């Protein structure tokens, strides 16, 4: 039975579970939105308000639903994910101040005017523009109180024009419905965030169900505080990360699938995810080459003969397409001025000078505007120590995933996947490298860019031999990630109080 069929069978057998889970989601939203309303209102009205009562009732209902779900969820790590991830995703979506997520103001503009390749965009006049920080939650309350007149518009050049409209298709549904109704634009921003957060929740569950090994590793990786922050925002990276991570998981699931030959629907899913990666973020295109490990599983000789040529042609056409849509100037500058000494000198300087910051950002040590090269901003939320704990838990989960299968990667497959992760990381560095004249450090790299290639490399490094960490129960990782993220969210709330 294929993993897709197993998912369909599980759905039929657990309808009551999913019905109660829907209640759990609704109660969490009610409770946490009530908490945000209570925090915003307390500046003028104190804490004994109807908003606080609303929050308490929602949280109690969520707790009751959690109790009902608990005994049926602690056996499998994917169902633990369904319990652990929702309050964290909703928390990041609601309590992280709009515009404080890196570059989110640009993506918010696209949610209100979803046109790729177009600049400037037309957005509501009363909506704040780039780097117009809101500040504490009292300022957010003032934003909620604005009566929006959507007939008043302005143009903005913060347009994220390079991203496809596909990236904003789902979150922009909030504005498509809400703007004609005259709903406050900041309420719509939170609605768009929650749409992305729920999309990630179900994508994460799908990935954990399909992972043929390394589920503990994937569980901890998918609950990375930085990743949760990005997924619970209006950023295009929300769908970019989902597309890239789901593609990697689909490749792994097909590589170790028990059916021979592989069902056609699995190839269709793989192709669909590959196209989604291509549409979402051109920089992640090399990750599609991970599918090369599936080549021996192709039954048809004709397809095996044609495929390398088709893949080469696709890569050439992709490069031409990227070149023609506006990246020509950057590519020409790189090709005309590139030198190995300058490039690797800059790479070495960046690792030496910014490596710690990049690692810190990757693991969720910074949950606000990027803190780079000493630069500060009024919305830079720094979370101390939690990132160290997260990396420790990730290492333990990585070791706990050893020995889950005896038929893991062949040596050439490991080499290919690790090389792809390294090449992808180098290309991400090259895309941001402007120090062509000399070996100076790039100080605007952000750790979140490396989430998909790091996941690919970690999966490729899982070994056959068990470690003592394999004895740790799934619940240990669930509790650990709740603590890491609750601590991180507490610092976010404290910062904006």
Automatic annotation (TrEMBL):
Transmembrane domains' residue ranges: 47-68, 80-101, 185-208, 268-294, 306-330, 385-403, 415-433, 445-463, 475-496
Keyword match Nucleus: no
InterPro entries (UniProt xref): DUF2142_membrane
Pfam families for this protein: DUF2142
Keywords: Membrane, Transmembrane, Transmembrane helix
Name of the protein in question: DUF2142 domain-containing protein
């Amino acid at each position: 039975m294929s993993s897709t069929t197993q998912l369909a069978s599980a759905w039929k057998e657990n309808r009551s579970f999913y019905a109660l889970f829907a209640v759990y989601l609704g109660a969490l939203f009610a409770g946490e939105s009530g908490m945000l309303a209570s925090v915003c209102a307390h500046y003028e009205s104190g804490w004994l308000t109807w908003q606080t009562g609303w929050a308490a009732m929602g949280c109690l209902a969520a707790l009751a639903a959690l109790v009902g779900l608990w005994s049926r969820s602690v056996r499998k790590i994917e169902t633990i994910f369904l319990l652990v991830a929702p309050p964290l995703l909703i928390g990041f979506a609601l309590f992280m101040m709009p515009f404080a997520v890196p570059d989110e103001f640009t993506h918010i503009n696209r949610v209100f005017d979803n046109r790729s390749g177009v600049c400037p965009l037309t957005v509501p006049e009363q909506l704040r523009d780039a780097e117009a920080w809101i500040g504490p939650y009292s300022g957010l309350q003032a934003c909620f109180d604005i009566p929006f007149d959507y007939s008043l518009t302005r143009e903005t050049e913060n347009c994220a024009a390079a991203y496809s409209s596909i990236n904003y298709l789902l979150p922009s549904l909030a504005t498509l419905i809400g703007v004609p109704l005259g709903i406050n634009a900041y309420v719509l921003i939170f609605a768009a965030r929650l749409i992305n957060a729920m999309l990630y929740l179900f994508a994460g569950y799908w990935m954990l169900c399909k992972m043929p090994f390394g589920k503990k590793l994937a569980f901890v990786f998918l609950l990375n505080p930085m990743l949760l922050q990005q997924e619970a925002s209006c950023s295009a990276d929300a769908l970019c990360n989902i597309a890239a991570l789901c593609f990697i998981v689909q490749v792994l699931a097909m590589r170790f699938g028990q059916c021979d030959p592989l069902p056609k629907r699995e190839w269709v899913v793989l192709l669909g995810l590959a196209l989604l990666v291509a549409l979402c973020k051109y920089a992640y295109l090399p990750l599609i080459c991970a599918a090369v490990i599936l080549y021996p599983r192709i039954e048809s000789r004709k397809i095996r003969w044609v495929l390398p040529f088709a893949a080469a042609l696709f890569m050439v056409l992709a490069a031409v397409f990227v070149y023609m849509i506006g990246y020509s100037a950057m590519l020409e500058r790189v090709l005309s001025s590139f030198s190995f000494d300058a490039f690797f000198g800059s790479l070495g300087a960046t690792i030496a000078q910014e490596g710690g910051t990049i690692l810190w950002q990757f693991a969720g040590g910074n949950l606000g505007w990027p803190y780079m090269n000493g630069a500060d901003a009024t919305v830079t939320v720094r979370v101390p120590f939690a990132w160290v704990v997260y990396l420790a838990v990730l290492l333990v989960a990585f070791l706990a995933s050893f020995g889950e299968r005896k038929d893991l990667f062949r040596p050439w497959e490991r080499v290919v996947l690790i090389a792809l992760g390294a090449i992808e990381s180098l290309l991400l560095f090259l895309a941001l490298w402007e120090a062509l004249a000399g070996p100076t450090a790039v100080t605007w790299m952000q750790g979140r860019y490396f989430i998909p290639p790091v996941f690919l490399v970690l999966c490729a490094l899982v070994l056959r031999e068990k470690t003592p960490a394999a004895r740790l129960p799934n619940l240990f990782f669930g509790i650990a990630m709740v603590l890491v993220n609750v601590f991180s969210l507490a610092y976010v709330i404290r910062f904006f109080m």
